[in-house]
Every structure is written in C-alpha cells, then in structure tokens.
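Researcher: Batch entry, complex prediction.
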Amino acid sequence: MEWKETLSRYIDLTNEALSTYTDIENGENQQVINAMQYSLFAGGKRLRPVLTLAAAEMLGGSAKMALPYACALEMIHTYSLIHDDLPAMDDDDFRRGKPTNHIVYGDGMAILAGDGLLNLAYEIMLDDATKQPNPKPCLKAAHTIAVAAGIHGMIGGQSADLMNEGQSKQEEPSADTLAYIHEHKTGALLAAALTAGAYVAGATEKEAEAMKSAGFALGLAFQIQDDLLDLEGDAEEMGKPVGSDLKNEKMTYPAIYGVEASHEKVRALTDGALGIFEGFGSSSAFLQSLATYLISRRS
Amino acid sequence: MEWKETLSRYIDLTNEALSTYTDIENGENQQVINAMQYSLFAGGKRLRPVLTLAAAEMLGGSAKMALPYACALEMIHTYSLIHDDLPAMDDDDFRRGKPTNHIVYGDGMAILAGDGLLNLAYEIMLDDATKQPNPKPCLKAAHTIAVAAGIHGMIGGQSADLMNEGQSKQEEPSADTLAYIHEHKTGALLAAALTAGAYVAGATEKEAEAMKSAGFALGLAFQIQDDLLDLEGDAEEMGKPVGSDLKNEKMTYPAIYGVEASHEKVRALTDGALGIFEGFGSSSAFLQSLATYLISRRS
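Model: Structure tokens for the complex:
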C-alpha cells in the first residue's frame, strides 16, 4: 500500500503548511483567527490539496512548490462549508461530528471567518507568485483557482443550489439544474485542484486541459458518491446525520436517476478519470490509486 | 473646478468597467449576479477606485492600466458592506437610502453576493496580471490589496469591531481598540487604494510607502468624519438614519475624545496627507483637491 504512504505525506505537508499560514498575531483580530483555525482543523480529508500536490509531482514538479496553491484550495473549500452551514443557508449544526463554526463562534464571526479564509487563500497565492523569478505558471494556477471558486464556478453552484432548495415538491427537479449544481459547486474546485498543481509544475495547456477533464469527472463521481452515502451511509462513520438531503428536499442524483444508475455513473466517471491519468504514464500511479479508492469510501 | 471634472472622469471610468465586469452569463447563477450588481450600483461614492486611478496618473501611469485594481477595491469594499449589514452583524435595513442586500435578496443570497464580489475582485486582478508581459508591478498591487483586505487589515478590523460592540456600558472603550478598528476596518483599504495605483504605475518602494502613509492618514480622517456625520449630520443628506452608532453602543472617536478634538484630528490628519502629496509636485493637484474636499463633505 505504498500509495497510502504518499497520501499521508501529502496530508502531513498540507497540515503543517496550514498551521504555519494561520499561526499569526495575537491581538485584536484573535477571535477571527481562532474561528478560521477551528474549521480548518476540524477533520477535513484534504482531498483538494492532495490532488494539487499529486498533480504537481506527476508532472515533474515538487509538492513544496505547489503547497501555497494546495493550501489556498483547502481554505476556499473550508470557507464555503462555513458559509453553507449558516442558518441563512443549509442551517447545519454539525459537520464531521463537531459543532459547526457559527454554533461555536456565532453567526457574525462565522461569516468573518469564511471571508478571512477566502481572502487568506489569495494572500498566500499572491505572496508566493510575487516571489517567483518567473511568476507566469503560478499566476495561471492562481487564476484557475479564482475562476473555479467564483460565480462561474463554486459560488455559481451555491447560488443555484440555494434557489432550488425546497422546490422538489412543487415541481420536478430539473436534471440540467442538478448537473449545473454538481459541476459547479463541487466539480469546479476539484478540477482546479488538479489543474493548478499541473500549472505550477509547468504543464502545457493540453496537459492542463486533460487534468481539468479528469478533475470534473472525479468531482462529479465524488458528489454522487456523497449523495449515495447520505442515503445509504452510516451516521457514525459519516460523522453527521444521514438522510439530511431528503429532509431538506435537496435535489440529488439518486433522487432523479435512482440508486443503481447512480452507482453505475460513479464507476463510469472514475473509469474516465483513470484513462486520463494512465495517459501520463507511471508517474500517475498515485492518482490512479486515489481515484480507485474514492469509489469505495464509506464516509 | 477642474478637479471635479477629473473626479467625474474617474467615476465614469469605474462605473463603465464595473458594468462590464458584472455583465456576465444569464443562467443558473443569475440570482447571485443580480444581487452583486444591486449593491455594486447602489450609489457608492467610488472613493477607493478614484484614489487608485489618481495615484496611478500622479505617478505617470494611465488610469486604464489601474482600472482592474480600482474595480477590485470597489468590489471588496462593497462585499464588506453587504456582510456588515447582515442581521448577524450590524443588522442594517438601509444603506445610502436603499434597502440593504439581504432585505432584497434574503440573508443566504446576500452572503453569496458578498463572497462573489470578494472572489471576483481577485479574478479580475489575476486575469489582468496574467496578461502582462511583466506582471511584477501588478502582482505587487494585487498583493497589497489582498493584505489590506484580510485578517491583517479590514477583516481584522471587522472582527475587533464585532467583539467590542455593545461593551461600552460595561467597560470604558479602549482607545487602543478604537484605533485598531479605525486603522484596519477603513484605513487599510484606503491606504491600499493609493499604494496599488502607485505600484501599477511603477512606483518605487519609497514612493509606495509614502502613498501608504497618506492613505492611512486620509482613511482615519475619513472614518472620524463619518463618526461626526453620524452624530451631527442630516439623515436626508446622508441617505441613512443618523445616531445609529449611539443606538448600537458603538465605540467612536467622538465618543471617546469629544466632538471638538475629533474635528481637530480630522484637520491634522488631512494636513499630513496634503504634505505627502505636495512632495510629488504638481501632478498631485487632483489628490490635494480631493483630500481638502473630503473634510468638508456633508454625507
């Protein structure tokens, strides 16, 4: 299981860097830093940073050069969860078995903690890019992440999600809308994780495009798997209540296409991503193992 | 009054560019774009973009090259107002005479609209920097803005403000805390506006530092003037209820130091900024006129 050692190395690198990035000041702004650290170290799987570091190494770069972009992605992912959990959005009190940010710090501070993480992601990337003799590859990585996180990406997906919640009783959920939400809310950032890692390592546009396709396929597979786990999973293993999508009348892939077709779709999408990784040769062994593992996860 | 024509030119340039930047798509993400546009075009004075464009021209650059950074600053300022107005923060129903974002679009969409504007600011700057043959000056501008907007700047100030609200009855407001809030919540972004414009135009570090000092002085003067207008101003001219700081038990400069000393401080700070601008010679005429005008404003 050599790939699991690599996984641990990527996760350790990420956690160390995230600690360093948020080990700052101790003054009037202490509370927002506490709130940011709370969610940043609340048990996230570090999937996005792992993808970034792995893509960089696959393309011949180092994990170290990709770390600022890997950490930026984790900060952006974490901020989106903090804001999503707010009473004004999904109103979730628990995530990964722990009270959500606003339960601990209050709604106002949770909003600021999310804002702080989003902004810090860009501070880190711009600080790194400014120090490069040739900043172009890093700028491409940062720009890719910015587009994926914004209204053409994740925030666009969150907006569509918010507009469509609770509508399933009145009208059939549209398959197009569901596809838009999945592709943008989850897929865009996962695709950016692979693409940014590739760019930092000096990937060509063609290589970056291939990584983007693999990322969107994995992202959709990951999201459908999440929906299936919400239906079929074990609350204790998941660290959160299951069945919340049904309760919230959320449109999900299984709700529209059925459970069996959803499992089938996860397999087909994963095969697509595996095919792309194989095209990069033996240096893609880790990403192939990771993609295969993601299908079988229980939480 | 030639300087007022220049002011109009800067404001028109900013408004045109902001329209172009947000004239995008018409799909599943339409609602968050509507909400972003609503607050972006709700009567802002465009002070930050004006400072950026003026600083760039003063240093021999063009307003056009500074526009992405000017618009990014206005987006960051606008997002901070949207989030500040939320029930979980200041709970304000009106701003500049119009219903606040969450009153029109709901709390959840207002949170996303703020997130969307913050992220779009970085998309725009990174897009511009990526296109430059030599991206270093633009990267310095973007990095300066990012640091000023984050936990070491504006968000740090918002966090301190949120932690200290409603405490004035229990304990004396600390002058240090008030200074921190003013310097970070308002000063940092105004200083970044002047500094970023200078960087884009190729300023030296020494010139950038001077502009930063002028920006902090103007920022503090502007904030104290705001506090004074909240006490002494006319609700109709202001476009919002006056006296809200007293109602919210907010620490303000006049509350701690008194009205007369506050007016005196505004004058002294403005003189400091004027001295710095004068050091740049005749090309600083516009910024000198603007600084003098800001003292006498009624809203």
